[in-house]
Automatic annotation (TrEMBL):
Keywords: ATP-binding, Cell membrane, Membrane, Nucleotide-binding, Transport. The keyword Nucleotide-binding applies. Belongs to the ABC transporter superfamily. It comes from Streptomyces spinosisporus. It comes from the Bacteria. It is a peripheral membrane protein. NCBIfam families: oligo_HPY. GO terms for molecular function: ATP binding. This is ABC transporter ATP-binding protein.
Length: 353
């Protein structure tokens, strides 16, 4: 007998008034082993000038979501359903030529590894100047000046001279700054930062995060900041969305989610974070079990095989009924609001210290 998964909650239509509105997004890939459901029923909104932090274990669909916003998947192997509205423009059905106009101009992305964005064959200055010329029609000279200005803004010393260097002449931290300069050169309305500091040492990481905050103040862009580090999120984001196995399990303002998290998976994430006052060499308490296969995800709540609270939910609902996160609901879990509060206050918080 197969288990029937009931989907809870009626889908809410995309908010055409929001700056970015993602509704019931599904992204799947055809592979040799079968269909990977990388994103499965994801909805969220983002307003201008705000930073949304997306957090979740590796493989939860964070990068796929954002590459889909940028239209960067190979249509041969990818099926996309749902809606992505950017200022009312539907992106999932947009033509490649329209997406190309958006990328680097209205929407820009910075990656964990700057070498995926920077070419070894051209000078750093040229790589920053080129998108500016393409999208604004500026002259070569004006675009070069702009590239030098941007390198200065992201804190590269002697930007006039360094603009003529090739990426390999830059240190890792400087390459990261150069990529940020490239992403911001056209003053994008939406900046997607996918684990931009994961590969950097702590000091450089802190500098880059400060830089992003300053630049947001100056440019007023909306930012999607992806990380598996809740500490970084706490520092950077106005709002948090926690992803698990291709869906959002919890969403709220950063203060709400960190102060009174509602979802057992979020509790696990918080519990696995190093504490400031703890011995840094002490092992973290990871969430027991492993993330599920997205080829054949668990029925009902995707997190139920790893959840220690399902016996507190009446009947077999965690196994048969998938709790979805409606835009007005803080967490996708069958525990009642009262249960979530009580469990967090009495059982989880004391463990977090
Ligand atoms: N092009 C692809 N083809 C097949 N599977 C993919 C592809 N890209 C990503 N996936 C799978 O989709 C899931 C989500 O990946 P991803 O969004 O990269 O996770 P993360 O949250 O770590 O960024 C993973 O299971 C990954 O293996
Ligand atoms: Mg990723």
């Amino acid at each position: 007998m197969t288990t029937v998964t009931k989907e809870a909650g009626a889908p809410v239509p995309a908010d055409a008034g929001a700056f970015l509105s993602v509704r019931d997004l599904h992204v799947s890939f055809k592979t040799e082993d079968g269909v990977v459901k990388a994103v499965d029923g994801l909805s969220f909104d983002l307003e201008r000038g705000r930073t949304l932090g997306i957090v979740g274990e590796s493989g939860s669909g964070k990068s796929v979501t954002n590459l889909t916003i940028l239209g960067l998947h190979n249509p041969m192997f990818t099926t996309i359903e749902g809606e992505i509205l950017l200022e009312g423009q539907e992106l999932t059905t947009a033509r490649e030529s329209e997406l190309e106009k958006l990328r680097g101009n209205k929407v820009a992305m910075i990656f964990q590894d700057p070498l995926t964005a920077l070419s070894p064959y051209y000078t750093v200055g040229r790589q920053i100047a080129e998108p500016f010329m393409k999208h604004t029609g500026a002259s070569k000279k004006a675009a070069w000046d702009r590239a030098v200005e941007m390198l200065g803004k992201v804190g590269i010393p002697n930007p006039k001279e360094r603009a003529g260097d090739y990426p390999h002449q830059f240190s890792g931290g400087m390459r990261q700054r150069a990529m940020i300069a490239m992403a911001l050169v056209c003053d994008p309305d939406l900046l997607i930062a996918d684990e931009p500091t994961t590969a950097l040492d702590v000091t450089v990481q802190a500098q880059i995060l400060d830089l992003l905050k300053d630049l947001q103040q100056e440019f007023g862009s909306a930012i999607i900041f992806i990380t598996h580090d809740l500490g970084v999120i706490a520092d950077m984001a106005d709002d948090i969305m926690v992803m698990y196995a291709g869906g959002a399990v919890e969403r709220g303002t950063t203060a709400e989610v960190l102060r009174s998290p509602q979802h057992p998976y979020t509790w696990g994430l918080l519990n696995s974070m190093p504490r400031l006052d703890s011995d840094l060499s002490a092992p973290l308490a990871p969430i027991p079990g492993t993330p599920p296969s997205l080829l054949n995800p668990p029925s009902g709540c995707r997190f139920h095989p790893r959840c220690t609270f399902q016996d507190r939910v009446d009947g077999n609902r965690c196994v048969t009924e998938r709790p979805l996160l409606a835009p007005d609901r803080a967490s996708a879990c069958h525990l009642t609001a009262e249960q979530k509060r009580t469990i967090f206050v009495e059982e989880i918080r004391p463990r977090l210290g």
